[in-house]
From TrEMBL:
Essential component of the vacuolar proton pump (V-ATPase), a multimeric enzyme that catalyzes the translocation of protons across the membranes. Required for assembly and activity of the V-ATPase. The chain crosses the membrane at residues 425-449, 470-487, 550-568, 580-603, 639-657, 758-779. GO terms for cellular component: vacuolar proton-transporting V-type ATPase, V0 domain. Belongs to the V-ATPase 116 kDa subunit family. It comes from Castanea mollissima. It is a multi-pass membrane protein. The keyword Ion transport applies. This is V-type proton ATPase subunit a. The lineage of its organism: Eukaryota, Viridiplantae, Streptophyta, Embryophyta, Tracheophyta. Its main location: membrane.
């Protein structure tokens, strides 16, 4: 759920992302005669999340189970219509005019349309099957007649040959059996039957073998290949088939052959030996095919016209059915009062929506001609309310990033406010190249410019994700251009954009040897890295030192911001224990160590000192009393280090020990009656309910609380070190991106340029573009995105963000179109 429309336009208070909207638990008592209209108006408003007051009942035991079943049946019919339209190549049209139709009339109309469409489909299916059978029958007549023609020709040749033998003079060598064969009575000759049909080509070999084995070879099979695939009458699919004629002797053989034909899916068709009948049957079948074709075309035209009529109103009908089903589903969540004349509803709504909901109730009572109006009242509760942030298309993707980790607790400080800036900035630190940033910007602008078109289309999973986060990608692209200008990298190539380089070579060899040969001849380069560093031997050490120290500074700053936000939460929820025994010691511990390291980095940059900061930090713990020597950056550094080390050591027991004992004392005082106060407002109740500390439970386990605090303390102490080191991924990924870009530029583009060959140059440019897009603009973008996500979820949000709330899902018709049945 990205965007939630509040409705009401200017009557709503200004959007506040830092704290979720103030919520209230409300109760509605609605007369039965106006219940449907009331819920419909509340769905249009979309600012009330109903609670299920019938959770102990099954769906079939609820009041409006029959109406939901009726709506489900209408939804089934609409799905049937949609499938039929997709098969016919139609798509539902968006109608500008709103059809005013009653749901009961729509039910009758859908039933009539379904009956008509089913009948058309059934008749069309029967006609198509008959047509396919006639096509196969015609093929059998054509191929089988060829068999018999060839058989008759061979029989005529054999008779003429026998006749010539009889005319010849007899000799002693003439076999006696020949005379016996020729004088055999024709009435005693065996009569052969035959079966004709079509068998799938892939089964023809097995069909022949089974026939031979079942009849022990007492059959004669002839097959002819049908060149084009034919539509099978039963399955309706295109199948390659062979026409067959099986000659047999006896009824037993015939029964076996018929069973084998059924087993192999061979379609059998009658065939006459008479040539005249064959010609007549071919003519008759051809005529019937033409008639069936005309009838089928008329049926398809009638079906298309019907589907076109359905498609014109389909979306309106579908929305109306979805709306009706969601209304009755919501009504089933309401409970009947004792008199069974009213429905009682409970739900959460924003405080600012009180007037809007009351207006909707009044309109519903008036429009339904109800003699009694609905009653609206606010309930007092200690239950934790849902979290509701009003977002727009710009802030929605950033809120989704935070919600993917966990939904904020009610009125907890929302990291989204800072994530809007810090997330794309940390991404850009790892992705800094203003050439790549421009490519990313152009792709994002394409999505934004065609926003209306894409928002009305059904997109794929990846495209839908990119389109939903288009403004997040826009910010990432802009910050990438900014950091790319600081790094002075355009596809790894430096440019003197803001001024000439401040350095020049003493001689021609200095650029290839070391920067010691460079002398400063102008003012310092005004913005970003001086282009003279790129390509020199000192480039990697210089940029490594710069980016590593910059990563530590950014990490310590963001972790401090997280701890400050924990103070904001503690003050908001009036939790003084967390201020004194969590916020203060955590700030002292973090800044005594890594805040001091950040100070040393800034002093070293400002003074140009050669001090080794690794040595300073290591021996601050190992030998805090030793003299710093050449690593001293300012007077009094040794004394400051001792004081900071002592504060860091004191901060650990400060976090660990006092809080469990204070919580225990507060619990004891509360049970002695010292802390009982009357309920003043619902907001105070929410603040009490929102505080999830262990002392809110009836039973207080001191050992459990102490162990929990011990784990929390150890996690923070060790996490301060690991989290600071984790921010070095900013340096590592920035270096990897820069080096990959440099390799692609030098080894693909420049290498191809050096051959002075147009073909090689074109190939080099194509490979360079593919490598840049595939590796740097796709894989590196995804990698930097995931690392920036981890830094926010783990290193930043674990300092203050609980994320154990639940999202506000109001009953709204704006979402029914996105739900799948």
């Amino acid at each position: 759920m990205g965007e939630v429309r509040a409705g009401g336009g200017g009557c709503c208070p200004p959007m506040n992302l830092f704290r979720s909207e103030s919520m209230q638990l409300v109760q509605l008592i609605i007369p039965m005669e106006s219940a449907h209209v009331t819920v419909s108006y509340l769905g249009d408003l979309g600012l009330l999340q109903f609670k299920d007051l019938n959770a102990d009942k099954s769906p079939f035991q609820r009041t409006y189970a029959a109406q939901i079943k009726k709506s489900g049946e209408m939804a089934r019919r609409l799905r049937f219509f949609k499938d039929q339209m997709l098969k016919a190549g139609f798509s539902p049209k968006k109608s500008a005019t709103q059809a005013d139709i009653n749901i009961d009339d729509l039910e009758v109309k859908l039933a009539e349309l379904e009956t008509e469409l089913v009948e058309i489909n059934a008749n069309g299916g029967k006609l198509q099957r008959a047509y396919n059978e006639l096509v196969e029958y015609k093929l059998v007549l054509q191929k089988a007649s060829e068999f018999f023609h060839s058989a008759l020709n061979s029989a005529a040749e054999q008779q003429s040959e026998n006749a010539s033998r009889q005319i010849g003079e007899e000799s002693l060598d003439t076999p006696l059996l020949l005379e016996q064969e020729m004088s055999t009575d024709s009435s005693k000759q065996v009569k052969l039957g035959f079966i004709t049909g079509l068998v799938p080509r892939q089964k023809s070999m097995a069909f022949e073998r089974i026939l031979f084995r079942a009849t022990r070879g007492n059959v004669f099979l002839r097959e002819a290949v049908v060149e084009d695939p034919v539509t099978d009458p039963i399955s309706g699919e295109k199948v390659e088939k062979n026409v067959f004629v099986v000659f047999y002797s006896g009824e037993r053989a015939k029964n076996k052959i018929l069973k084998i034909c059924e087993a192999f899916g061979a379609n059998r068709y009658p065939f006459s030996e008479d040539l005249n009948k064959q010609d007549h049957m071919v003519t008759e079948v051809s005529g019937r095919l033409l008639e069936l074709k005309t009838t089928i075309d008329i049926g398809l035209l009638q079906r298309d016209n019907l589907l076109q009529t359905i498609g014109d109103q389909f979306e309106q009908w579908e929305f109306l059915v979805r709306k009706e089903k969601s209304i009755y589903h919501t009504l089933n969540m309401l409970s009947l009062d004792v008199t069974k004349k009213c429905l009682v509803a409970e739900g959460w709504s924003p405080v600012f929506a009180t007037k809007l909901i009351q207006d909707a109730l009044q309109r519903a009572s008036f429009d339904s001609n109800s003699q009694v109006g609905a009653i609206f009242q606010i309930l007092q509760t200690k239950e934790l309310p849902p979290t509701y942030f009003r977002t727009n298309k710009f802030t929605s993707p950033f809120q989704e990033i935070v919600d993917a980790y966990g939904v904020a607790k009610y009125q907890e400080a929302n990291p989204t406010v800072y994530t809007i800036v810090t997330f794309p900035f940390l991404f850009a630190v790892m992705f800094g190249d203003w050439g790549h940033g421009i490519c990313l910007l152009l792709a994002t602008l394409y999505l934004i410019i065609r926003e209306k078109k894409f928002s009305s289309q059904k997109l794929g999973d990846i495209m839908e994700m990119m389109f939903g986060g288009r403004y997040c990608i826009l910010m990432m692209a802009l910050f990438s251009i900014y950091t790319g200008l600081i790094y002075n990298e355009f596809f790894s190539v430096p440019f003197e954009l803001f001024a000439p380089s401040a350095y020049a070579c003493r001689d021609l060899s200095c650029r290839d040897s070391t920067t010691m040969g460079l002398i400063k001849v102008r003012d310092t380069y005004p913005f970003g890295v001086d282009p003279v560093w790129h390509g020199s031997r000192s480039e990697l050490p210089f940029l490594n030192s710069l980016k590593m120290k910059m990563s530590i500074l950014l990490g310590v700053a963001q972790m401090n911001l997280g701890i400050i936000l924990s103070y904001c939460n503690a003050k908001f929820f009036r939790n003084g224990v967390n201020v004194w025994f969590q916020f203060i010691p955590q700030m002292i511990f973090l800044n005594s160590l890594f805040g001091y390291l950040s100070l040393l980095i800034l002093v070293k940059w400002s003074t140009g000192s050669q001090a080794d900061l690794y040595h300073v930090m290591i021996y601050m713990f190992l030998s805090p009393t030793d003299d710093l020597g050449e690593n001293q950056l300012f007077p009094g550094q040794k004394t400051l280090q001792l004081a900071l080390l002592l504060l860091a050591l004191v901060a650990v027991p400060w976090m660990l020990i006092p809080k469990p004992f204070i919580l225990k004392k507060q619990h004891q005082d509360r049970h002695r009656g010292h802390s009982y106060t009357p309920l003043e407002s619902s907001e105070d109740n929410f603040q009490l309910g929102a505080n999830h500390d262990s002392h809110d439970h009836e039973e207080f386990e001191f050992s459990e609380v102490f162990v929990h605090q011990l784990i929390h303390t150890i996690e923070f102490v060790l996490g301060s070190v690991s989290n600071t080191a984790s921010y070095l991924r900013l340096w590592a990924l920035s270096l990897a991106h820069s080096e990959l870009s440099s390799v692609f530029y030098d080894k693909l583009l420049m290498l191809a340029w050096g051959y002075n060959n147009v073909i090689i140059l074109i190939v080099g440019i194509i490979v360079f573009i593919c490598a840049t897009v595939g590796v740097l603009l796709v894989m590196e973008t995804l990698s930097a995105f995931l690392h920036a996500l981890r830094l926010h979820w783990v290193e930043f949000q674990n300092k203050f963000y609980e994320g154990d709330g639940y999202k506000f899902y109001p009953f709204s018709f704006a979402w029914t179109g996105d739900e799948d049945e």
